[in-house]
Amino acid sequence: MKLQTGKSVSTFFLALVLSGAAFAADLRPADSFATVGDRAERSRALFAEAGKVIQHPRCLNCHPVGERPTQGTDMHPHSPLVVRGADDEGAVGMRCTTCHQDANFDPAGVPGHPLWHVAPKKMAWQQQSLKQICEQVKDPRRNGGKTLSQIQEHMAHDTLVGWAWRPGGTREPAPGTQEQFGALIAAWIETGAACPR
Amino acid sequence: MPISLNVNGQSREVDVDPATPLLWVLREDLGLTGTKYGCGIAQCGACTVHVEGEALRSCAAPVRVVAGRKVTTIEGVNSPAAKAVQKAWVELDVVQCGYCQSGQIMSATALLEKKPRPTDQDIDQAMAGNICRCATYHRIRAAIHAAAKQLA
Q1: What are phi and psi of B21, to 5 degrees?
Q2: Total Cβ atoms within 10 A of residue B123
Q3: Do A81 and B111 touch (CB under 8 A)?
Q4: If you average pLDDT over every residue of chain B, what do you get?
Q5: Which pLDDT score, from 0 to 100, does residue B1 have?
Q6: Contact status of A170 with chain B (Cβ, < 8 Å)
Q7: How far apart are CA A11 and CA A17, in angstroms?
Q8: Minimal-distance CA residue of chain A relative to B18
Q9: Which position among A53, A86, A124, B102 has the lowest Cβ density within 10 Å, counted as fewest Cβ atoms?
Q10: Is A87 on the interface with B (CB under 8 A)?
Q11: Residue B17: how many other CB atoms lie within 10 Å
Q12: Are residues B19 and B68 both part of a single domain?
């Protein structure tokens, strides 16, 4: 692209600013839901907004229903074939760490994190409605024994959750930022943690 | 940057970028060419080595992650399970072209060291990441069962 005039340059930078703004607006800020008068409705709306992250392939891929995680934005079965195994960290002889190290490794295109693993079966999100996921997230028997406060802390600060915004390579990150996501979850809890209908 | 490694029981020091794939260091810096380059993206298993007894695709691991850990390659693997696998490999004449075989043997050994009597499913799951273009899969599975019998 050849930019010859000051006007073209201005237009170019305006477009950059607008595209940046559009990216940042991928998640609505939690405080923008203050206009929803009914508290329970506001809570449901907040969780629905957070659901844009929760139901993004970057998160769903490692919350499979069955034995096998998926990968890619199209959520195809993980290649090569891997299974969760007894500890959600792979089969004997074919562990997650056989390929995934402590950080994304772009020369091989393989993502990584020190705690790379598949979410336990009881935390399956694939093929579940947002209502079902919401109920699971709130249920200590299915959320790892967490209180709502611990859930908020997990969503807002856990670094494996945070990988979804730093997936490396050409992988599409989850919408918004982890900070915005954490704020939505905090506001959802503050408004009664109501689940979508 | 100098990095200290333990490869096949020997202390080695290499002066490489810490992000260099382990496979490159093994082959280019240490001359251990028994570990093969297949795909470079952890899809074929030809580059499998052991780190602290677990299988690892050396093409997809930066060398920094194995600093101070025990790395074993096909040149150095000699546990009872490894010997049983190698014997079974010869007896059943598993190899065809042979390119994938060092990776296959490393994965099979890692499996048997953790699970001495694997089922067909155990074998399929542990070996799913090791591709053989000659399709010797049936002989690989039979050889792993044969090695398990030797170990019993």
Answers
A1: -55, 140
A2: 24
A3: no
A4: 97
A5: 84
A6: no
A7: 10
A8: A105
A9: A86
A10: no
A11: 12
A12: yes
CA A119 vs. chain centroid, Å, equals 13
> A125 to chain B, minimum CA–CA distance in Å?
24
**Which residue of B23, B54, B117 is the best one to mutate when testing the A interface, meaning the one whose CB has the most A CBs within 10 A?**
B54
Nearest CA in chain A to B48: A98
Share of chain A above pLDDT 70, in %: 87
Residues whose CB is less than 8 angstroms from the CB of residue B136 and which lie 6 or more positions away in sequence, other chains included: B94, B95, B96
Do B68 and B84 share a domain, yes or no? no
**Sign of the four-CA dihedral A12, A13, A14, A17:** positive
Q: Which residue of B has its CA nearest to A96?
A: B56
Whole-angstrom distance, CA of residue A188 vs CA of residue B88: 60
B144 and chain A: CB distance < 8 Å anywhere?
Answer: no
Asked if B42 has any chain A CB less than 8 Å from its own CB, the reply is: yes
Rounded to the nearest angstrom, the minimum Cα separation between B18 and chain A is 12
CATH number where B53 lies: 3.10.20.30
Chain B touched by A36 (CB under 8 Å): no
- The nearest alpha carbon in chain B to A83 belongs to B125
Number of domains observed in the structure of chain B: 2
Instruction: Determine how β-strand B2-7 pairs with β-strand B10-15.
Output: antiparallel
**Residue A70 to residue A79: CA distance in whole angstroms:** 8
Residue A87 lies in a domain: yes
B134 & B107 share domain: yes
CATH number of residue B85's parent domain: 1.10.150.120
Task: Measure in Å the smallest separation between the Cα of B133 and chain A Cα atoms.
Answer: 15
A195 within some domain: no
Residue A66 lies in a domain: yes
The complex's ipTM?
A: 0.97
Q: Answer whether residue A68 is part of any domain.
A: yes
Domain that holds residue B13: 2-72
Domain span including residue A29: 25-190
